[in-house]
Design brief:
143 residues; mainly beta; Thrombin, subunit H; 11 strands; globular
């Protein structure tokens, strides 16, 4: 939920368990995938993200109204400020389990003061990865 009674949400695809994403088979989503909606009227205030995402999954709006998204097809996390991408975590279409890679990251949140980023990398890696506000790796929490 954003201020002024607006909600930001994404319109995307899902995938069944055990199915691996193939960017050549599915391709980028040509339509706008991120919508900002007035919760009182249902009117679409803003929409963007066409030809940007493959399988958007997690969406979070932080205290400064930055929009954070995960894309399980791309194995990445993105931060947008005023519609511009300002931070990318992970390597495009490269799954992994080290400090700079994810495997289908499911969600992202920040600490209340914005000093840390937490990525749930749960579909393949069963872990939470912590970064500082600039995207530098801090710590991994796993079993």
């Amino acid at each position: 939920m954003r201020s002024r009674g607006h909600m930001t949400l994404f319109v995307g695809l899902s995938f069944p368990d055990g199915v691996n994403f193939d960017k050549n088979k599915f391709g980028v989503i040509p339509e706008n995938t991120i919508l900002t909606v007035n919760t009182r009227t249902g009117q679409i205030i803003d929409q963007w993200g066409n030809n940007t995402f493959y399988m958007p999954h997690g969406l979070y709006v932080d205290a400064e109204e930055n929009i954070w998204l995960t894309d399980v097809g791309m194995h990445q996390v993105f931060k947008y400020s005023k519609g511009e991408r300002v931070l990318t975590l992970g390597e495009s279409f490269v799954a992994g389990d080290d400090s700079s890679h994810f495997c289908k990251p499911t969600d992202v949140v920040t600490s209340n003061d914005g000093s840390h980023i937490y990525v749930a990398d749960g579909y393949c890696n069963d872990r939470i990865v912590k970064f500082d506000s600039k995207g530098n790796f801090v710590k991994e929490y796993s079993n």
